Amino acid sequence: MEQSVPVIPLRPLTFGELLDAAVLLLRANARLLLIAAFVLAVCEQAVLFPLRSAAGVQGTTDLFDAATDTGLWWLVFCCGLTTEGIVLVLLGGLTGAAVGPALLGTPAPARELLRRWGRRAPALIGLALLVGLILLPSAVVALPWIYFFGAIGLAAPALVVDRVAPGPALARSLTLAPVGLRGVAIRLGGYGGWAAIRVAIGLGTAALLDVFVPDSSTAAQIVTMVVWVLANTVVYAALACIDAVLYLETRMRIEGLDVAVGRSRRLGHPVDLAHTALLGAVRR
């Protein structure tokens, strides 16, 4: 396959360069990633809607309502945090399949990315369950969720790029992301920025509905759900791209992946990102 300009520079990146690379990865695979993110966002709302209804949470913004039982509201909110992590794992399988070719300048077509995702689908589902088991209890306690959400973001790309099982993929993320807390901080920073945008969208939607549909009718529930799904579609696709780029960038920074890839190319050897780092220099 003819090489093109790599989407990801073959060197450790600054924070701004990492975000730029994530945007380029999203643009290069926009149709596939946005469609997949939309489907997952719809499935997430389908799971959460009955929980919100049973708890008396109005709308889909998860914003606290004084008329709602505090304990039930908190449990529903924690379920939302957990489903977000699960969605990012499943979507991270696609971005993980796309990020390697993007680094090497040999972008793969959507059909090939779906084929690679399909081969790893059982393992990704297993990883998603592991992530859910970690995030839900840590979210209930609150503070541990902040660390674990940031530390497990590299697991899905690791599972696809390194072709490992769910357990080793999760262990790899928990080993790489906490180094200097850089990976944790970048993932939390990306999530926090997008979360602020979504909260603003939720508040704006709620304010408009209070004016035009003041009775909290089913129509209001549907409108807010649609708005939330559309917002999450873009958010999830962007965050999954950040996770994938961050994984390879972290390997370049810590394991010398860029050095190993360059060496393999100079020697005329095929580049296999799953094993290349074993030959690379280690950076600290």
Instruction: Tell me the quaternary state.
Output: single chain
Structural class estimated from helices and strands: mainly alpha
- Strand percentage lies at under 5%
Q: What low-confidence regions span 5 or more consecutive residues with pLDDT below 50?
A: 278-284
Count every helix, treating DSSP H or I runs of 4 or more residues as helices. Answer: 10
What Rg, in angstroms, do the CA atoms define?
A: 20 Å
If you average the pLDDT, what whole number results? Answer: 85
- Main β-sheet, in a few words? none
Number of strands: 0
How many domains?
A: 1
H/E series, N to C?
HHHHHHHHHH
Gap from first CA to last CA: 35 Å
Q: What is the helix fraction of residues, given as a range?
A: over 70%
* Bulk shape: globular
Question: Can you describe what's shown?
Answer:
This protein starts with 14 loop residues before the first helix and ends in an 18-residue tail after the last helix. The radius of gyration is 20 Å and the shape is globular. With 284 residues, the chain is mainly α. It has helices at residues 15-28, 30-55, 70-104, 110-141, 143-151, 155-161, 166-176, 182-212, 218-255, 257-266. Mean pLDDT is 85; it is low at 278-284.
Descriptive key words:
284 residues; mainly alpha; 0% strand
